Here is the input.
Amino acid sequence: MTHNESAAVSRETDGNSVPVDDVFADTPIAAAAARASQILTPGGTGTLPRPARPRIMTVANQKGGVGKTTSAVNLAAGLALHGIGVLVIDLDPQGNASTALGIDHRKPGIASVYEMLLDDVPLRDAIQRSPSNKNLYCVPSTLDLAGAEIELVSVVARESRLRNALDPQVLTELGIDYVLIDCPPSLGLLTVNAMVAAREVLIPIQCEYYALEGVGQLLRNIELVQAHLNKRLHVSTILLTMYDGRTKLADQVAAEVRSHFGPKVLNTIIPRSVKVSEAPGYGMTIIDYDPGSRGAMSYLDAARELAQQVGTKESGQ
Here is the structure.
C-alpha cells in the first residue's frame, strides 16, 4: 500500500482509526519541524531587552576545540534573530567565524580586521553584513592576520588598536547592540587587543576532562589587563559546551564549573552535536542550517539568557 493510500485509509471514520498526520505529529522530526517553523516565523521568537549602550564582549579561551568560534557566531545569530543588532569581529586568522556567517573572506582586496588594525582602515570600510540576517554584521579575517602578532610589536599603542578602531558613531548608525570578538586560541597580542577593546569576557568551557585546564592562566591574563590596560574588563559569562548527557563526567564537570564561577555560568548548556559541527562547512550558523535541532534551540536559549543580563550585569561594566 502506498503512503497516500495508507493516509486515505487512516482518515476513514470508522471510529477506531487515527489520522496518520496525527501520528507523524508526535515524531521527533515533526517536533523539530514545528520548532523550526516557529523560529523562522517573523516575531515567532519574541523580543529581547536591548542594552542602553553596545555590549562589547570578548569570546576567549586559549584552549582549542572548546566551541569558542561556534559559540560566538551562534550566539550572534540567536540575538540577531530577535531583531538585535550584532557585530562579530573575527580576530582569528583561521577565519572560521567569517565562514560561518557567509562572508567571502578569501576574495582578493577585501578590507578585513588586519587592515583595520595595521593600516588604519576605518570600521565603516571593513564591516560587512551577513547574508543570513539583516541585523548581523562581521568584520572578516584573512590569512594576512596570521602575521599581525609580529607586526603589531613595533606599532604605537599596539594593545589599543582594536579599541581605537571601534567607531561608536558607526555602531550607532548600524544599530549595533552587541559586539562579539572571536579570539584566536592563544594569549598573544590579538587576544590582548580584544580584551582592551571589550568590557566583558565570555568564556566557553567544554564539559570534558581537563575542562578548567588553562582557564586559570586566562583569568590571570584578564587580571593583568584589568590592572594595566582596561579597568572595566570583567568575566561576565561562562558557557558550558559540548555536553554529552550519556556520561557522568559531563555532569561532574558542569557541577565543578558552576561551583567555581557561580551565577556567571549560564543555565543553558550546549549539547555535543554533529549538526552544530556541520553547519560552518555550508557557510551557515546552526540556526540557519537546522533551526529545529537541539543545538539551535540551545544557542537560542543561551542568547536569551545573555540578553537578560542587561538589567543585572550591565551595571557593572
